[in-house]
Records
---
Amino acid sequence: MKLKTFKMGGVHPDDSKISSGAAIEELPLPQTAYISMAQHLGAPAVPAVQKGDSVKVGQLIATAGGFVSAVIRSPFSGTVKAVEPRADLAGNMVPHIIIDVEGDEWLPEIDRTPDIRREITATPGEILAKIQDAGVVGLGGAAFPTHVKLAPPKGKTAECLILNGTECEPFLTSDDRIMRERPEEIILGAVIMMKALGVDKCYVGIEENKPEAIAAMKGAAAGYAGVKVVPLRKKYPQGGEKQLIDAIIRRRVPSMGLPIDTGAVVQNVGTSLAVYEAVQKNKPLIDNTITVTGKCLGSQRNFKTRVGCTYAQLLEAAGGAPENAAKFISGGPMMGKAIVNLEAATQKATSALLVLTEEETLRKPESNCIRCGKCADACPMGLQPFLLSKYARAGKHQDELEEEKVFDCIECGCCLYTCPANIPLLDVIRPAKAEVIKIMRSRPKQ
Amino acid sequence: MTTTILYTVLCLVALGLLFAVVLYLVAQKFKVEEDPRIDTVESLLPGANCGGCGNAGCRAFAEKFVKADGEGDFFCPVGGNETMKKIAGALGKEAVEKVPMAAIVRCQGTADKCARTNRYDGYASCKVAAALYSGETGCRWGCIGLGDCLEVCQFGGIRIDPRSGVADINADMCTGCGSCAKVCPRGVIEMRPKGPKGRRVFVSCVNRDKGALTRKACTIGCIGCGKCEKVCPFGAVHVENNVAYIDFTKCKLCRKCVDECPTHAIVAANFPPKPQQVAQPNTEKQ
């Protein structure tokens, strides 16, 4: 049978899933933890503790800063050392709550037993409240607050839930590992979200390069009505929300529209696990799975870490960086962000720490556009990257950029990856897109 | 044979004449009446099309200027007062004098003063780099040195010093059009009055971090200690957001702050060399 995939564009980078064999291990607790207030999309959280306060694991330490925002619960027990700005992975100053870790004392209502609780008693309203209260955000990368996504805006109804287990970025294996090791809990999380949304269908999209995960998820899904595992052909960026909807239910999200316009709600498998833990076990989102990988590293690891450890600590636990390590990336090589400050703290949606050598990161010199059209073929959104980059470089062409729908760009990097002339297409388009969106937002609404 | 050539030539000549007449008639019929003064004004403008005046180019400026009959807030920063006098004269008006401006780079974070902590290998544009992260040095406020300002400067007045990695403005070539200040994503470049004989005193730092952080990142940054604020007899210096700023409307160029500044972040440009610098406070007292 021919496997499904999205229709338009896409590239096939070497998947390099070299860490897929490493079982998830627990990272030891750090001495000091740094909890960022801006680890989700939307308004930053507002600190609710002060210097000197003692906190327990699961205690509320920051409240949501708006409707599209999420609360933050303490991943550690100890004393608040300071609430102050600290450099994040890109070197920008972001408010952090700094905790001196003492022991590991959890709030009593959190169920820490490994038993799987299958009975779902919460009503849809209770489910949403619990998810919001646990500070669950999308763990696919964008960290969009989950309770907002599970409450479709007025006039729109959800028809199905799509679980995103594609993990299309090269190198990343954290989703693969949790699907192999905790498949039933993920499916239960999906069932809970289906109840909250009032839908009876759920598709779990997993790419073909993860056969063990597909088998495990299929086995776990067998006992639950309406949940179907859909193996997908390997293609980047299949994990993009819009691409996944296209691949599985063959509907296209309209330009400027939301995924809910197609009747689908997409959630990452990690988010599903967090939802299960929040609703069934009262455990807030305080930890996640992070892959530490790189061809130059001695060992490939998948760690279960509390939110707020530093990248340096992860690296140390994996055996330290080799001498020829030149670039550290948080996330995958396609969409991840370069880390300039290894002392920065991990966040809820951090998926990987990737270490690359000088040779692997070398940029080839740029030459002239030969008008081959490869970038336009590769663009999964049907844009014309060569044209967008020309406008962006020339500057002052915001109207033309808007006409060419630059705002639809999902910044997947396919254009840049495929360009034979090594033109940094996405690099130039990205700031231009931000500018255009700013102009569009500043316009009075009609 | 000859008749063929003759016919061809005659035919083409006839066609040519016919088209000429048609074109002439069409041109007469659809003639665009334009104020001849626009051409006059345009010819008097520098013609750099830099956009420093806020218009799309010199022609656009001339059109607007003539349409408004020279009244209103029009100024060509490149041509300066002289050009304004000329074009106002062309319309029979008096020009309003303005202080000539010049661009200054408020950053001295050269490689030896502000250590590089990482290496940027992305697309060489300040705008792109600034959108991605805090920059190659420990300072997230200062000059990135990838030359966006150099690209927009129509007068060749900016260069990126290859050794220091910071933008350097050639005061003689700067016309004060302000396009570099507009394009700088960090807001490092500021437009200030040229000052008498090009002399000006300014705080060459925009780092808004607290003093300790600034110092860690750069040895010549403003730490916001406020000494300059206290020493200034004219109340021209104010420390806001951990960085001092000298108000050029109040500054009398006494340079007391320059001597007081512990990190040498305050720059006195185009003053005669040292011996006089010491003498200056004395003349101030007299």
---
Amino acid sequence: MQFGIFTVGDVTMDPTNGRTPSEHERIKAMVTIAQKAEEVGLDVFATGEHHNPPFVPSSPTTMLGYVAARTDHLILSTSTTLITTNDPVKIAEDFAMLQHLADGRVDLMLGRGNTGPVYPWFGKDIRQGIPLAVENYALLHKLWREDTVDWAGKFRTPLQSFTSTPRPLDDVPPFVWHGSIRSPEIAEQAAYYGDGFFANNIFWPKEHFKQLIGLYRERYAYYGHGSADQAIVGLGGQVFMRKNSQDAVREFRPYFDNAPVYGHGPSLEEFTEQTPLTVGSPQEVIDKTLTFRDTFGDYQRQLFLMDHAGLPLKTVLEQLDILGEEVVPVLRREFAAGRPAHVPDGPTHQALVARRDNQEVSPA
Amino acid sequence: MTRHLVVITAGLGRPSSTRLLADRLTAATREQVAAQGATDDLDVQVVELRDLANEIAQNMVTGFPGPQLRAAIDATTGADALIAVTPVFTGSYSGLFKSFFDVIDKDALTGTPVLIAATGGTPRHSLVLEHAMRPLFTYLRAVVMPTAVYAATADWGTVPADGDAPLATRITRAATELTPYLTAPAPRPAPAETLTPFADQLAALAPQE
């Protein structure tokens, strides 16, 4: 099982002192946070993609390429890469290039994006969101698996005799997660291809995601990729920790109350009761995270949101220390206990290469 | 089998004349259903939006309903028929009333029979029913009863010497219109879960030869 962090990349005023970091500070902070994730023993760093203020990460592969050069083990990913408004040809090229530079430590999570105007800004029609996701990914999938592609579709100029370069490292494309908050179509898409499904469950109650993940698992088995409990599931989480629960609550409350997504809405207490958000001691975070398995089954990747709502870099780095030292080692041990042998681990390039080689030597 | 009638009332006072009108409409509907000799049980659930005001506002911010609001939404979208009553505020339905329907999925009330009603200080606002309430439920593709009931403050005291009060007459007529939806042999079928198989989604995008 893999543990990591995902970042939205928001530039938000620290509500406790009124200070807003510059874009430059925020970008450098994201890189520092990624390096810290590796240092404390986490497996994954994922960055969002946005094309409007107050968000900085418009160019994820540029950032991840830089992080790749400064890390050795960390898997670099996205949360999410916009499959609707980016050209699938450019995604194929950018991530294959990143995959080579990072020696395979790359995967990506595809999403449709939730900022309406991004569609018209990139010349797309938001009413075609799902069809765009379907067609663009079908092309991306082909570009990474066929050397020479002839293709025609609804949304993009046709291709004749096109080869996306560089070819994927070891001829094994980066692993793909499909991220969704509400669309069964995307769960169905992930299941069809045998790709991963990431349910960013951090803002909503679990009943909703139980249904979505259940559908994905069922359809994954239907399409013959394995049993339902072998489907590749990723989940979000959101935590703030101090040694004493009360200190965590006191320190985090102003950030919660003013957070861009849920601020000025429910109370911290209501929100922690209804969603995965945990504000408290490391043990409380461990306990809450372990309940995810009871709800959703054994899963492959757990990403935490740690650096939003104006939290200062220093605090975020302290949080990562606690996460890496006190929380994740226990979670690794607990999640491993009782995990059936046939449930796959989190996807890595090496494992995908080995699986491909296995399939080639074994008779069909 | 049991039929479910959900009564949504957006009155803020305690007691509230909006709730009073909702109760009159509910009682009249019960009476009509019984008069039809219906064999099915009628289950009536009243949703007081005042009690959900916080959760409705929070849903606006977070995008998901809290536990009490979720129960109210589930009851509303699963009902065989609705009675929806709002006070008139600033020339229209109240903001709380509209907000409740704003946080419900826009397709969830398709085909649901609705009896609409409103209360106000003077009769001059009665067209709120036709110019605000009816278009709202038409947008939601609900089936709105032809008779809508408006009660001005004065209506609670008006009983003409020569017969029934006009308010009582309208209440009975509206209830009579709603009754068939609570007594007819086959209830509205639940919408089937539609999942388009992925191959069909792909095929729909293939260029035409």
